[in-house]
Amino acid sequence: MDTITRRQFLKATGAGALGAAATSLTFEDIAEAAISRPLPLGTPILVVVTLYGGNDGLNTVVPVTDPIYQSLRPGIAYKESDVLPLRENLYLNGSMTGMHALWNKNQVAIVRGVGYPNSDRSHFSSMAIWQSAILGAAKTGWLGRWVETQAEDPMLAIGLGSVLPPLLAGEKRSGSVLPLGGLKLPTGSLASDCMKLSIANRNDNLLQATAARSMRNLFTVSSDITPILKAPAPAASDLPTAVGGNAGGESNLTQQLDVVAKLVAAGAPTRVWSVSLGGFDTHADEKGAQAILLGVVSEGISKFMSQMRATNRSKDVVVLVYSEFGRRVRGNASDGTDMEPLVQSLSSVKR
Amino acid sequence: MAKLSYFAGMADIAERRAIARLSHRFGFGPKPGEFKTLVDSGFSNAASKLLTAPTTDAFADNQPLPNVKDQGPRPRPNTPQVVAYATEKRAQFTELLFWWLDRMALSEHPLRERMTWFWHGHWATSYQKVDDALPMFRQNQSLRKHALGNFAEMSRAMVNDGALIFWLDGQTNTVKAPNENLSRELMELFVLGVNRYTENDVRETAKALTGYRVNKTSGDVTFIPKQHYSMPISFLGTTGVFDGNSLSDYLVARNDCALFITERLWYRFISSSEALSDLNLTKAFANRDIASLVRAIGTHSAMRDDRYAMVKPPLDWFVSVSRAFGIKPSAFSNTATIRNNLNLLGQVPFLPPNVGGWPADQAWLSTASAQFRISFAERLVKEADLSPIADLPARNRVDAMLDWLGVPAWSTRTALALRGAQRDPARLALLAICSPEYVVSA
Fold first, then answer.
1. Shortest CA distance to B218 belongs to which of B71, B67, B65, B66?
2. CB atoms within 10 A of CB A37
3. For residue B276, what pLDDT is reported?
4. How many CA within 13 A on the CB side of residue A122?
5. Are A178 and A163 in contact (CB under 8 A)?
6. Share of chain B above pLDDT 90, in %
7. A248 vs A140, residue with greater confidence
8. Mutate which of B200, B305, B351, B366 to test chain A, going by most A C-beta atoms within 10 A?
9. CB-based contacts of A177: which residues, under 8 Å, 6+ apart?
10. Contact between chains at B417 and A196 (C-beta distance less than 8 A)
11. Tens digits of residue pLDDT in B44-77
12. Distance CA B350, CA A208 (A)
């Protein structure tokens, strides 16, 4: 069903509104920028993959041989034959063969047991903390604040999807968003009427000014550049959201990474990309659902890294994967796990 | 420039704006003719009209119920029955969706549907996981029943609601191993607000919610004493034996509940960016009477404060356009157009993005949504009753649209753009509903 509705916006329950509004880009914008001012080779590129819902870290990097793990997780513990060896009694989830191959080539770093004090185990506050990198109420994301230190450029940091991830929100300037479906511009007299309607007016309040600007930006795009990236990426079949489906996140990670790969290859002057996958809120029937999701993450990233090798930019790219928290050591009766405030970051690095 | 006629003979602009806020935020915008009557009656009469739901409603009382029924369990995979089952499932969801859209657009008095919509975003439950229309419909009816009633009763109804329990895994919460999803969201998102309880409270109250089994396709909930934790639990300064109802009552009675629900109404009706400025408002919720709190907020001085502009969420925008244009959503030539466009704009009822509900304000103002709004508007004007302006001389149409659509005033920018199109009523209507003055409730 509606794959596009699974989008992530972290609205804290209080009054914590996001910062500056996002500019939404078109493929044409990026294509034009890639041609006129391509990113120099050797410039670092960060791709952040957010797993929404709280990924179970203990079944991602699995201490299979640890008797405590086995005894506390009847029903959801893996056996040694199901998982892929890393080192020192640690194993990778069996569905992550692609990541495992990267690991064997020394291209993966894993940071275990990352957390912060006094977690309230709320998806919303926890994501807000990781995305802002601030304990307590924050209106900006850590990458949004970086955006504000750089020369103004809407191409600098781009989130895939239709809503700005809090990660990229700055106070005055934010990252941009790129809708996967691309944009269709009004034409003819409707275009000229809408242009008139979107002129800035000094009596506009902040929101009206934003509404006018968002419409105006539709027309500031040069539409005669042949889009490099017109070919749509194949639509990923819908992921299992029947379980673990209530904490947000886009459900087409492969498609998002495909678009990023094409744009990086084209030389887009973008240094930070943000993509996401939802569905990790596996309170029940966890093992199978999580394995499918981790398989998607693993395949998506290993395919992406191999696309990067073909572009001479693989040395420039770092992929960071994280989730808002891990899950309890002890299983619950629903063959799932409740939440635990520890995060595991998987980074695919080749530098 | 010639004297702008919309300043002449009109009520004070601040008064018009306050009444437009009432109409758009609490009533899905005016039907043709309504706004002028409201303005002529003055703010306080307009407020008592819009903020009091009558006991009967000519449309809602006579609307047939949607054809939504228990489909029973899904047939085994790879059997011929699977296709018919899936087709029926899709049809039921569509029927339910358009039943509600009709009710929002056509109810004589919009407050009850407007509040049901608010509560749906509050107890945000998604069909995406529930996957059966009947439990979603039953929840919707329950929210409607209590929409302007007592919050303690609403909260009790929700902790016993099949769709909500299933959505938050309550059906797997047993005494052997409690599942905390529902207890956490009950305190964080539904009744108290984040950080107004401890982690230990979450673990303890999860036990009170054990033993509720859901029939997924009907939404029936059965309480199974054997699976319920029957020992005393300790949380938020109390110790005792609790079940869902008594837990709900205890939480709702706390002062934090009055504060939180007041904050949530403030967030959706006054401002998502400026925090609740008047704690006295919580007094209107002392008896947990929702209607009193709605009236207190709708008549508060904040309704006249410049700072508190809001963006109309896509659903509110669509419903207010439908009301002005005389569009019955289920009678639209192609209902998929409506569903698809709401989906592109990011807001389909029964499909909130997560348990926190939909976002607000700036999140709805991307360039992508500007484009989707324009193309949706192109479709809507084709099926609009444009007679409120088409029957007028061209030169009078721009001004007439203010009262038709419930807009306080056009900016010079918008007035110029509209005058350029005044000979073409459909184009005029399209531009007006995409204008910053309509998209934003100033």
1. B71
2. 13
3. 95
4. 25
5. no
6. 86
7. A140
8. B366
9. A22, A23, A24, A25, A158, A159, A160, A161, A162, A163, A164, B366, B368
10. yes
11. 999 999 999 999 999 999 999 999 999 999 898 8
12. 28
Q: Tokens for A4, please give them.
A: 């596009």
Contact B99, B63 (CB under 8 A): yes
**What are the residue boundaries of the structural domains of chain B, listed by start?**
5-53+310-441
ipTM score assigned to the predicted complex = 0.91
Residue A345 dihedral angles phi and psi, to the nearest 5°: -105, 135
Cα distances (angstroms) measured from residue A197 to each of A202, B142, B428, B440:
14, 42, 11, 14
User: How is domain A19-181+224-349 classified at the architecture level of CATH?
Assistant: 3-Layer(aba) Sandwich (3.40)
Query: In angstroms, rounded to a whole number, what is the distance separating the alpha carbons of residues B93 and B90?
Result: 5
Q: Which of A145-149, A215-219, B176-180 has the lowest mean pLDDT?
A: A215-219
Question: Are the beta carbons of A7 and B346 separated by less than 8 Å?
Answer: yes
pLDDT band at A197 (very low <50, low <70, confident <90, very high): very high
A15, B274: Cβ pair inside 8 Å? yes
Closest CA to A113 of A60, A52, A49: A60
Query: How far is B141 from B130, CA to CA, in rounded Å?
Result: 16
For B:280-299, CB contacts with A below 8 A are none
Angstrom distance (rounded) from CA B153 to CA B161: 12
Interface contact flag, A18 B355, Cβ < 8 Å:
no
- Backbone angles phi and psi of B223, in degrees to 5: -95, 125
Q: State residue B120's pLDDT score.
A: 98
Q: Which residues of B touch A211 (CB under 8 A)?
A: 311, 365, 370, 436, 439-440
pLDDT score, position B291 = 98
Helix (H, G, I), strand (E, B) or coil at A344: strand
Choose among A115, A125, A163: nearest CA to A341.
A115
- Compute the distance between CA of residue A197 and CA of residue A193 in angstroms, rounded to an integer: 6
What is the reported pTM?
A: 0.72
Two tokens at A190? 């409707």
Instruction: Please classify residue A330 by burial: count the beta carbons closer than 10 Å to its beta carbon, then call 0-12 exposed, 13-18 middle and 19+ buried.
Output: middle
* Residues A254 and A158: beta-carbon distance below 8 Å: no
Paired strand residues for A247: B354
For A189, the token pair is 């007299």
Contact B45, B133 (CB under 8 A): no
Helix (H/G/I), strand (E/B), else coil: A328: strand
Show Cβ contacts of residue B251 under 8 Å, excluding neighbours closer than 6 positions.
B155, B186, B187, B191, B192, B236, B257
**What phi and psi values does residue A310 have, to the nearest 5 degrees?**
-70, -10
> In a 3-state reduction of DSSP, which class is residue B440?
strand
Pick the more confident residue, B350 or B369.
Answer: B350
DSSP string, B275-337: ----GGGGGGGTT-BHHHHHHHHHTSGGGG-TT--EEPPHHHHHHHHHHHHT--GGGSS-HHH
**Chain A, chain B: beta-carbon pairs less than 8 Å apart:** 248
What is the structure's pLDDT at A342? Answer: 47
Contact A253, A63 (CB under 8 A): no
Query: Distance between CA atoms of A265 and A262, rounded to whole angstroms?
Result: 5
Between B418 and A28, where is the model more confident? B418
Task: Give Cα B11 to chain centroid, integer Å.
Answer: 30
- Degrees, nearest 5: CA angle A11-A16-A20: 90
Region A176-198 average pLDDT: 81
The per-residue pLDDT for range B319-363, each reduced to its tens digit, is 999 999 999 999 999 999 999 899 888 899 999 988 989 988 887
- What average pLDDT score do residues B227-249 get? 96
Residues 6+ apart with CB under 8 A from A215: A194, A197, A198, B367, B370, B374, B434
Q: What angle do CA B181, B183, B185 make, to 5 degrees?
A: 70
pLDDT classification of A264: cutoffs 50, 70, 90 = confident
